[in-house]
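Below is a filled-in request sheet from our internal design queue. Each sheet records the structural input a requester submitted and the sequence that came back. We keep these sheets so that new team members can see what a complete request looks like end to end.

REQUESTER: design group, bay 2
PRIORITY: normal
MODE: inverse folding
CHAIN LENGTH: 576
BACKBONE (tokenized):
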């Protein structure tokens, strides 16, 4: 009779007194073999994996969400803390104010984003109100529940902290702004503006108001001539002329939109051709552009502004939107005081996005700026590293040997060469010391300083945009994913102060272009390579880019359907 193999294993939890029992019975043509092994009562210990480092992410905006989407969550114990449980596609907020796009079309629940990542990523809907870098703990407060003490506060410790909380609107301490103006930073802001616009029209339609009161209610003021302010003014103008004029025909001629900018022009960060076109178009559309005016006070009924030529001017208004730059959140200000950055506007990081003088803390997005190391601060150390033969002088060849590392560590050198139309380091040396055609030409330390004395003029600060925050989040996630490998195989440039190489290459921002929707299905586009496009074709490029940049197919379909609905049925004017 032929027997088949039989395996039976019983664990100690199932059979008291027996930890492991293995019985194998096998039959062959010639006989029977049996083997049994009974272990002791002690359980066999499995090798313990080292505990994962705890990464805490503050914020679910562009920087934080992009970091989470690209991070390998299997390598870390990841915890996310934010007062909002969703990601918002903020470039479309002006479209929400006019009803072109619905609010829920541009938000993606953050738990859905984390679900797609897999792993055990924790999320808590709360806000951080204090960072303690000495003990590596953050103090949080829940908005939806309370602790045993009833205040909803709790502590979270971290090994690595990623601060990606964005920024708030900067009021420049102008009296009355917080009490009387709308901001446009969050989805809730856009919804409030949309309701306020409709309330102004409904109020102006009441029968007991005279014409002056109706004009006041229908005067919409936008303070700030940057991309957000300009796009909101254009979006509001389209809403009024294409939709509300049909619903309120008796008062539509009383509507006035004013755009106030303290500088001499609007859209100063764009090419002058775009600036001039935008100002001319707004003039044709009837939008009153006031440049060179500084708002000094906002009351319930009037806005007071100053101009060197006219002095103080007060104008009545029905609704005002304040869009004049960014300010630091209060708990970040307190954190900056703790780490010696009290005199700065935002958190200062190095080129690897590490908060200076603070171990294990990173900052990305609008709440931080990269403090690029200057060449002249390290000029003596650069000379020492390049002078391999310790001769006290450098040849062109010795400089070229570390030139790639200098370009990576100090990008302003390459930008300076490009701005001066120089072909390479030889041209730069020539500016300091005659003919440098031969590699044997030597420079002492003073001549080397003279050659590089002007390169730091090309140090630039990055703009506070979604594009910058997204690229920083992607870069930082890549660094975290390769952190262990980079310890053994560093890929960064030579350490000018110290030995060896940096673990990673520094962050480099790659500008992909920018848009300025100007209303009337016309958009200005400024793309790399000095490529400027203005008109209807750029509007369709804007549609395609913003649809592509949505972080999920759900929001992508919702946004496209909203645009299609607007083309067919117009914008919704209900006060919901």
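RETURNED SEQUENCE:
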């Amino acid at each position: 009779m032929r027997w088949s193999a039989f395996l039976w294993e019983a664990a100690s939890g199932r059979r008291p007194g027996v930890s492991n029992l293995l019985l194998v019975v096998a039959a062959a043509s010639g006989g029977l073999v049996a083997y049994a092994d009974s272990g002791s009562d002690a359980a066999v210990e499995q090798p313990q994996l080292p505990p994962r480092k705890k990464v805490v992410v503050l914020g679910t905006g562009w920087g934080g969400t992009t970091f989470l989407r690209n991070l390998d969550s299997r390598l870390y114990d990841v915890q996310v803390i934010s007062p909002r449980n969703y990601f918002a596609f903020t470039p479309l907020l002006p479209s929400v104010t006019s009803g072109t796009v619905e609010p829920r079309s541009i938000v993606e629940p953050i738990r859905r984003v984390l679900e797609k990542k897999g792993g055990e990523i924790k999320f808590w809907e709360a806000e951080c109100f204090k960072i303690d870098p000495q003990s590596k703990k953050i103090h949080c407060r829940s908005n939806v529940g309370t602790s045993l003490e009833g205040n909803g506060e709790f502590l979270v410790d971290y090994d690595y902290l990623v601060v990606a909380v964005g920024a708030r609107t900067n009021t420049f301490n102008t009296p009355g702004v917080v009490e009387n103006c709308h901001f446009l930073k969050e989805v809730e802001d856009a919804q409030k503006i949309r309701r306020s616009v409709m309330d102004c029209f409904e109020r102006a339609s009441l029968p007991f108001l005279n014409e002056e009161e109706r004009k006041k209610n229908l005067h919409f003021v936008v303070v700030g001539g940057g991309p957000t302010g300009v796009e909101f003014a254009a979006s509001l103008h389209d809403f009024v002329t294409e939709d509300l004029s049909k619903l309120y025909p008796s008062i539509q001629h009383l509507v006035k939109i004013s755009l106030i900018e303290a500088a001499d022009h609007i859209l100063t960060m764009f090419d002058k051709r775009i600036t001039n076109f935008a100002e001319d178009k707004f003039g044709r559309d009837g939008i009153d552009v006031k440049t060179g005016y500084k708002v000094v006070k906002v009351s319930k009924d009037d806005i007071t502004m100053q101009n060197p030529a006219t002095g103080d001017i007060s104008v009545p208004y029905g609704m005002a939107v304040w869009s004049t730059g960014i300010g630091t959140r209060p708990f970040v200000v307190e954190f900056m005081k703790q780490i010696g950055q009290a005199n700065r506007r935002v958190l200062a990081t190095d080129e690897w996005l590490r908060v200076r003088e603070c171990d294990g803390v990173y900052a990305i997005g609008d709440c931080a700026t990269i403090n690029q190391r200057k060449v002249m601060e390290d000029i003596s150390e650069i000379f020492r590293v390049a002078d391999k033969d310790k001769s006290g002088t450098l040849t062109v060849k010795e400089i070229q040997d570390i030139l790639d590392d200098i370009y990576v560590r100090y990008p302003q050198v390459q930008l300076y060469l490009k701005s001066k139309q120089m072909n390479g380091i030889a041209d730069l040396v020539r500016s300091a010391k005659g003919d440098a055609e031969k590699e044997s030409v030597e420079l002492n330390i003073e001549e080397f300083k003279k050659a590089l004395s002007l390169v730091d003029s090309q140090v630039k600060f990055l703009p506070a945009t979604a594009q910058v925050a997204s690229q920083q989040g992607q870069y930082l996630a890549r660094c975290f994913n390769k952190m262990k490998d980079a310890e053994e195989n560093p890929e960064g440039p030579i350490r000018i102060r110290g030995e060896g190489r940096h673990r990673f290459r520094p962050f480099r921002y790659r500008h992909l272009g920018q848009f300025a929707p100007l209303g009337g299905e016309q958009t200005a586009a400024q793309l790399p390579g000095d490529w400027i496009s203005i008109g209807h074709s750029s509007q369709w490029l804007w549609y395609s880019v913003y649809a592509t940049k949505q972080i999920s197919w759900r929001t992508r379909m919702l946004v496209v359907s909203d645009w299609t609905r607007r083309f067919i049925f117009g914008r919704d004017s209900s006060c919901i």
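SHEET NOTES:
- The CA atoms of residues 100 and 571 lie 6 Å apart.
- The longest strand covers residues 122-132.
FILED BY: M.R.
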